[in-house]
Amino acid sequence: NMKTMDVNHKTIPLHNLTDAHFRDILANLSMIAPEEASSGELKMALRMVPQFRETFQNVDTEHISVLLTDDSVVSLSSTDGKQLVLKKVVDFPCCVCHREVADNCEPSGQGLQCSTCDVWFHNCCMQEPLSIEQYKLYTNSPDYVQFSCPSCITQGVGKKPVLCVDTTA
Length: 169
Description:
Blueprint: E1 9-13, H1 19-28, H2 39-48, H3 50-55, E2 64-69, E3 72-78, E4 83-85, E5 111-113, E6 120-122, H4 132-139, H5 150-154
Antiparallel strand pairs: 1-2, 2-3, 3-4, 5-6
Helix pairs in contact: 1-2
């Protein structure tokens, strides 16, 4: 019952990218551009990258667009359907480590979603993680048991959870 987070997606033409975006693309393709490289040199460097050349051979750069997610380059695609994926779009990023929060994920596979702001956390990334018993109690509880993240608690819009575990049984 994970909720999708609001992520800012936009597609722009390759020729409208900033130098920072070109550097982001090159870095994701394991290429480092010198700090003093001009816009023209960054564009030329991209055309020389083997993955770019192989994917978009015989494609005019005017027909290539870029998918940005929260201003980070995710993929490049052409009007004829060719695509070069640079980063996996993470649907449920941990607010602390930014890796995917999923049932089978590392580091712990234990995810918590703030009931107030809908942000996700790995339990182990929390400053005060829930114990295994508390986590099981929380995840097996009815929907009215709420989890509030530290930010919402600090701002006074969330309540600190009180999870009692009977350790005498």
